[in-house]
Amino acid sequence: MAESLPLEMLTYILSFLPLSDQKEASLVSRAWYCAAQNALREQPGLTSLDLSGCSELTDGALLAVSRGLRHLRHLGLGKLQRLTDVGCTALGALRELQSLNMAECCLVSGRELAQTLGSVHGSPPHLTSLSLAYCSSLKSHLELEHRASDLKDPCPEPQGPSLLMLQALQELDLTACSKLTDASLAKVLQFPQLRQLSLSLLPALTDMGLVAVARGCPSLERLALSHCSHLSDEGWAQAASSWPRLQHLNLSSCSQLTEQTLDAIRQACRQLRVLDVAMCPGINMAAVRHFQAQLPQVSCIQSRFVGGADLTLTL
């Protein structure tokens, strides 16, 4: 009897079912399948979806999501280990997407992701938050096709697929994207509105990259650079003045830093509230105490194992 119902009526009925039941109903017949697809498309309420950890999901699942949930604003795809560039192309249909978590999606190469997010239909999505942490397969040319001849004066306008077009971006997590280099970071990290950035566990990041990021992202309030062992006092002497709004800073296990970096931060980052210099052997307890005295508004200084001591100073 249900087969004789108009498609619109059948769609209306199925719209009251939970997603799992709609999936089962779609297997009844072709008419029911069409009705279930229509019901999925017409659900206006679902704006947030977290599929993180669903390791068996493939590109087909993301294609289905992009067709049926066009109003998604927040999408979590962390640890989807079978997701590839094919699935990434589906993201272009999610025009209202504001935050995207693709941490540990290790089969995504980067070039297709940049093309999809950076130049879909000539207009970028309104992404404000993007996490690509632990995507170790991302290559150094991850975000761009354009060419910049001088590292010190990177080309401000992308000439090809580039995440540079995501000018509304406010949060970016590139933790452990180990193939990123100073050159790629200098060219692509030019986000004047970016407030939160993680470049922790980037073994190739040096002072040159740090200074370039400081110039390209002057509005940072939170910055994580833990385990970036090539950063030195000289880099921070140049970079610190670009971040007057910095409030949270993680420099743990940056083995080359000394009290000179603390002095540069103290003078330039007057709004700082939280600092982590744990496991920094070049910073001693005297320097930590002096920093605390000079910036009493800093509510927490994580300084475990500084100078051989195990200490956390808090107010």
Automatic annotation (TrEMBL):
Domain F-box stretches: 3-38
Matches recorded under SMART domains: LRR_CC
tRNA-binding is among the record's keywords: no
Record flagged with keyword Nucleus: no
One Gene Ontology term from the biological process aspect of the record: SCF-dependent proteasomal ubiquitin-dependent protein catabolic process
Cleaved signal peptide residues: none
InterPro entries: F-box-like_dom_sf, F-box_dom, FBXL15_LRR, Leu-rich_rpt_Cys-con_subtyp, LRR_dom_sf
GO cellular component: SCF ubiquitin ligase complex
UniProt keyword terms in alphabetical order: Leucine-rich repeat, Ubl conjugation pathway
Annotated F-box/LRR-repeat protein 15-like leucin rich repeat domain residues: 166-291
SUPFAM superfamilies referenced in this protein's UniProt entry, alphabetically: F-box domain (SSF81383), RNI-like (SSF52047)
Pfam family, one: DUF7885
Protein name, per record: Leucine-rich repeat-containing protein 29 isoform X2
Higher taxonomy: Eukaryota, Metazoa, Chordata, Craniata, Vertebrata
Record gene name: LRRC29
